[in-house]
Amino acid sequence: MKNGISTTEKRTRSDTIQRLLAFGALIIIFVGFSFASPYFFTFNNVIGILIATAVNGLLAIGVTFIIISGGIDLSVGTVMTLSAVMSGVFITYWKLPVPLGVMAGILTGGMAGFINGILISKLKLPPFIATLGMLNVARGFSLVISNLSPIYFGLETSFSSIAMGSILGSIIPGFEIPNAVLIMFGSAIIAGLILSKTIIGRYCYAIGSNEEAARLSGVNIVVWKTAIYTLGGIFVGIAGIVIAARLNSAQPALGLGYELDAIAAAVIGGTSMSGGEGTILGTIIGAFIISTLTNGLRIMSVPQEWQIVITGFIIISAVYLDILRRGKQ
After folding, report:
1. I need a surface site. Which of 87, 141, 179, 225 has the fewest CB within 10 A?
2. What gap in Å lies between CA 267 and CA 283, rounded to an integer?
3. The model's pTM
């Protein structure tokens, strides 16, 4: 403790400032595009931003747990695709009920996370290498299982209503908010409670802050790291269900590149790449920044290659600001 302020209080204050800055940036981006184009601030476009944020937000939630624990997961995009493909296999190929297909997709994500956790915590592989390998394994399995072809769910299964239906609209006429958005916000609330109120959340911060100190304190690093990666994989599996329902198909070639947006959302929202810091609320704000920026640039007819360049600069800037912030702490 220094000058009456503990390290924890400083970190909490820093996290709050980071979230406020991220939210302020989101407002500025939103207002700027609203003035720049009359097509931006319309109901349909705002709904489009919400739907686009749903998938990236779910992936970013899973990544947030992992980055806070001091790790990284490059496989979330292709694992999401594999989860969607497995749901397609259960529902379309094997003609099983939709709930079983949904459960299969979520468990596929959790199993991939479990394997990543074992490779990293038990076999001591670097997270970058382990998850890069899983990226290719998941991508390959998606192509093999689907026989290189999309798996279409068909209208008779009503699978698409999981993401594109509107429970809220049926309750309150006029509020046609897609279920995908509600799933994302519901998952964010649950993830926030897990991170702040449960033992896995506390160990997540402890391992990310100082893994050796956590080990000396009696924390079973193998068990809890594996649990953290598994938990992250479960949210990735949920993202796979949402994107499959949104497209009403499982696209086996989809997935590459999603991991970059997910990591960017977490970092922009204040999750430190060095581990030990981050919040789910900040990650959701970061996901909205990515989606809003992408949507606005598209409406302004900015070429896609320049959209990628701009996103890259934002990621670099966010990481650099995180380094400066931690240096001041």
Report:
1. 141
2. 7
3. 0.92
